Amino acid sequence: xxxxxxxxxxxxxxxxxxxxxxxxxxxxxxxxxxxxxxxxxxxxxxxxxxxxxxxxxxxxxxxxxxxxxxxxxxxxxxxxxxxxxxxxxxxxxxxxxxxxxxxxxxxxxxxxxxxxxxxxxxxxxxxxxxxxxxxxxxxxxxx
Length: 143
Ligand SMILES: [Zn+2]
Hints:
Blueprint: E1 5-9, E2 16-20, E3 27-29, E4 36-38, H1 52-142
Antiparallel strand pairs: 1-2, 3-4
The structure holds zinc ion.
């Protein structure tokens, strides 16, 4: 069987270039300008000298490539899902740590408030004592 080729114009230099049909769907270098070109075509394309067998083989190849591509996409999606799960778990962990730190701060704060309350109570009782002392002094003086 003759090796079928596909012929098209380079999108870069617009010169005519040919590749083997085996290169369809791949990126090749233009023989004239050296630029990268996507070799167009697919199972629907018709090539000169094609037999039914060639077409079937090409269709099978492109189906196989498409299946492999979809498997790759599915695998990447799984990887992405796994990555997101890990990320979510990490965020939950960070959130839990933040909550714990927040709780700790709240406890410290209420301890501080209790201490301040105790100091205020002490001052109040001192102030009461001073007042009664002063009242007693004034009584003594007026006698
Ligand atoms: Zn070119």
